[in-house]
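Possible regression after last week's pipeline update?

I re-ran a chain I had predicted before the update to compare outputs. Posting the input and the new output here so someone can diff against the archived version. Not blocking, just want to make sure nothing changed silently.
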Amino acid sequence: MVIVKRQAMENNLVSMAREVEKLRAELARVDGRPWGAGQPRNRE
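New output (post-update):
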């Protein structure tokens, strides 16, 4: 049971990571300023 739950959580995490990358790509396209993982965006 624990293994099944862990596998489901892992799959969920992978799905969320994919979605984050899609949103980042869309933001970079719209914003015109690409930014990498872990880098804070300064909005001034």
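Follow-up from reviewer: compared with the archived run. The mean pLDDT is 83. Marking as no regression found.
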